[in-house]
Amino acid sequence: MAEVAGVTVDTAHWIGGERVGSAAAFTDVSPIDEQPIAEIARGGAAEAEAAVTAATRAFPAWARTSREERARLLHAIADGVDKRVEELAQVETADNGALIRSHRRGVMPRVAHNFRFFADWLLQLGHDDFETRGHRNHVSWDPAGVCALITPWNAPLMLATWKVAPALAAGNTVVLKPAEWSPLTASLLADIAAEAGLPDGALNVVQGFGAEAGAALVAHPGVRRISFTGSVPTARTIAAAAAPNLTPLSLELGGKSPLLVFADADLDLAVDLAVEQYDNAGQVCLAATRLLVEASVAGEFTERFLARAERLVQGDPRDLSTDIGPQIHRRHFERVDGLVRRATKDGARALLGGGPNTDLGGLYYRPTLFTGAPAGSEILSEEVFGPVLTLQTFDTEEQAVAMANDTRFGLAATLATGDPERAARVTERLVAGTVWVNCFFVRDLRAPFGGSRQSGVGREGGDWSFDFYCDVKNTVMAP
Ligand code: NAD
């Protein structure tokens, strides 16, 4: 047990409806001040095995539970989340350093919405029936089995429930392995699900490191689906581990997304969109970190951007006036700093920031904007996952599209333009799972979500989630 921000959090695993400890533990450190906040059970192969066994046992009964009853239970979980928004917000902020104001207002209500949305979507999921020479084809969405859900630290509970909710709605049982840098709210979710009456073993939480608990889970032959959100290198390891069992994978990975600003754009809006990319201290997969600005307005854009960005308040994420909190972990901070240092060495010039926030110390990294990075340099091609943006200019639409697509990623793209015809032309040519025109981060759970190229495999959201989490079956009946 740990007391975090006044909330009691069970630091054991949650397996088959019971709290289960491990002989080993690891220390969870708060990014706010780098102080330890909890000792967490460190799971490995044995805990992964126990969780898959519990989930396998619970599967037949949960899979047979009516859609209405599954939806009712998911709504009860959502109600439980709503009741504990403040506790979840406090604990998540202590654990991953994201702003308390975003957790309260946006993230935790969205966690509840994840459950409600997939509960309601389940109830209206279609059954396609059609005839072939008098024979009736009946398409059904059968649950797949045990799902291993592996999640990152940048939006821990939001990303976990984006998987847990549809997987459970579809009639599967799940084993969730949260990121080791932000393990706490997954444990609170287990409490909430149990209080809501979810049957034992339907949701299991195994804590631990990726190379231990995570690796054991994704290699387990009893797992029928793996849904992973995280980095490209980990995705490769997971895909290799899944290959012998041919376990179907959904991979939601990193990005190096562009924000294209055309001369005909509303420049105030474009600046707002650009500054928004520092949200969550830049630790957002969808962040449009490459600012591509038409040369004729680049001077004006830069001036206005710097004026806005210099006003951003960096500090303790529990403070309501803070706009930018810390980086998640010392190791991540060092990685971000390494990329910034090498960018400078490569010839890029920081117009803003360019290093740690030495006034605050700790894990606070200054919002940074680079210009003049040489073509092909690391800072233009590698995901930083920190508050670091680059600025490049273009002269023609053709060039803008080529620069936007000049990446091995394809998660998202954003464009600012006042010309709807240009918006249509450019959008059609961008390689990205999501394109935003004159807006950013507007998400509807009915829409497909995922990445092209190395940003991912597959799509989730609405029917796409059920498509992944179900064994879709066609039954042909003779007349
Ligand atoms: P990561 O790949 O290091 O870790 C993600 C999860 O995988 C963690 O739970 C970790 O313990 C686990 N893991 C690590 N090795 C494993 C293994 N061998 N087997 C099984 N599990 C293993 O990623 P991260 O640093 O936590 O997250 C940052 C990355 O996530 C960034 O690249 C970011 O872009 C990406 N991300 C993508 C999305 C999206 O929706 N596309 C959303 C958020 C974050």
From TrEMBL:
PROSITE patterns with a match to the protein in the record: ALDEHYDE_DEHYDR_CYS, ALDEHYDE_DEHYDR_GLU
Domain of life: Bacteria
Entry's Gene Ontology molecular function annotations: oxidoreductase activity, acting on the aldehyde or oxo group of donors, NAD or NADP as acceptor
Residues in coiled coil: none
Protein name: Aldehyde dehydrogenase
Organism for this UniProt entry: Actinomadura rudentiformis
CDD domains cross-referenced by the UniProt entry: ALDH_F8_HMSADH
Catalytic residues as annotated in Swiss-Prot or TrEMBL: 252
Domain Aldehyde dehydrogenase: 25-474
InterPro entries (UniProt xref): Ald_DH/histidinol_DH (IPR016161), Ald_DH_C (IPR016163), Ald_DH_CS_CYS (IPR016160), Ald_DH_CS_GLU (IPR029510), Ald_DH_N (IPR016162), Aldehyde_DH_dom (IPR015590)
